[in-house]
UniProtKB/TrEMBL annotation:
Record-annotated membrane-spanning stretches: 12-31, 37-58, 70-90, 96-118, 125-144, 156-175, 182-203, 215-233, 245-264, 270-287
Protein name stated in the entry: Multidrug transporter
Subcellular location: Cell membrane
Family: Belongs to the EamA transporter family.
Tagged with keyword Cell membrane: yes
Primary location class: membrane
Pfam families documented for this protein: EamA
Residue ranges of every copy of the EamA domain listed in the record: 11-140, 153-287
Keywords: Cell membrane, Membrane, Transmembrane, Transmembrane helix
Topological type in the membrane: Multi-pass membrane protein
Length: 314
């Protein structure tokens, strides 16, 4: 095992890019007037469409999966769809701060699952870093939590969505050991999109007739939080453990709340902004002292600064 610092500055950059990217998701969802299941469906189908030009080098691997891999991909895709449905639905019922702060539970759920399934090792500094980040997350959402009406329902939906994405990430760690990032993401996104298609058909949601602005939002969701967020985090699973990758979600309340304040006019106090600094400090401690697998950076890395990472070995 080796410290994440050995892999070079590009990994930190990728991780930070992913945090910023997923933070835009709640803003785009708020801008759209379509049903959240329709938003998620086209978000994922458009993501696969963007990935199609790059599918040729991976065509053989993508069709050589065994029964176990197909079963895990199916389960992972359904869990991702469930996460989007529940979490995006929560944004219609509660504030961005409340919804995203509940996602801070994700690393705890994944840490517990990693210890159980992968015998992951944790140290005191990792727990301290997680505790600091969670404390900051609670401060961000504390002034906005409500225990009545639609806000409570929204908070519950966000919690259930967090549980679903934790399962998705753990399944991803199983699959990423023998599958490239591209193949894994393409199939998982496609399964999730088809799950939404069936759901929307059953619910009677319209598949067309949306304004050009709505299609623009769907495309933004596909490119920004999905490609530069979820795809990037799934790629990092081959280099970082699921718990470490999931710590990125603790940065989401910080940037989502800032974006909601700037773009949606939601309130953000000085205390909440200070809590954002606390969260980022906690995430830094966790990553700085966390342990990860000593693998070289693969050739398909989205960003790889020359000389900043270890060369790939065969």
């Amino acid at each position: 095992m080796t410290s994440i610092s050995r892999v070079g500055k590009s990994i930190y950059l990728l991780f930070f890019v992913g945090i910023i990217a997923i933070s835009f998701s709640s803003i785009f969802v708020r801008w759209s007037e379509a049903d959240v299941a329709v938003i998620a469906m086209y978000r994922l189908f458009l993501t696969n469409l963007v990935m199609l030009p790059f599918i040729w080098p991976h065509r053989h691997e993508m069709m050589r999966l065994d029964f176990r891999q197909w079963a895990l991909l199916l389960a992972s895709g359904v869990m991702l769809a469930l996460h989007f449905l529940l979490w995006m639905g929560s944004l219609r019922l509660t504030s961005v701060a409340s919804s995203t702060v509940i996602l801070a539970l994700e690393p705890i759920l994944i840490l517990a699952g990693s210890v159980w399934l992968f015998k992951a090792k944790i140290n005191r500094m990792m727990l301290i870093g997680m505790g600091i980040a969670l404390f900051g997350s609670i401060i961000i959402g504390a002034g906005d939590f409500q225990v009545a009406g639609t806000a409570l329902k929204g908070d519950i939906l966000s919690l259930l969505g967090t549980m679903a994405v934790a399962v998705h990430m753990l399944l991803g760690q199983f699959l990423r050991t023998g599958l490239s990032a591209f193949s894994y993401n393409f199939w998982v996104f496609l399964v999730a999109a088809c799950t939404f298609a069936v759901y929307n058909l059953f619910m009677g949601h319209a598949f067309g007739g949306y304004a050009a602005s709505e299609w623009g939002i769907f495309l933004l969701l596909a490119i920004v939080p999905t490609i530069f967020g979820h795809y990037l985090f799934n790629w990092l699973l081959q280099y970082m453990n699921a718990t470490t990758v999931s710590m990125g979600v603790l940065g989401e309340p910080v940037f989502s709340s800032l974006l909601a304040w700037m773009l949606l006019g939601e309130s953000l106090s000085t205390l909440q902004m200070s809590a954002g600094v606390v969260i980022l400090f906690g995430v830094w401690i966790f990553i700085r002292y966390g342990k990860t697998k000593p693998q070289p950076v693969p050739a398909d890395a989205p960003i790889a600064a020359p000389g900043s990472v270890e060369p790939k070995t065969v």
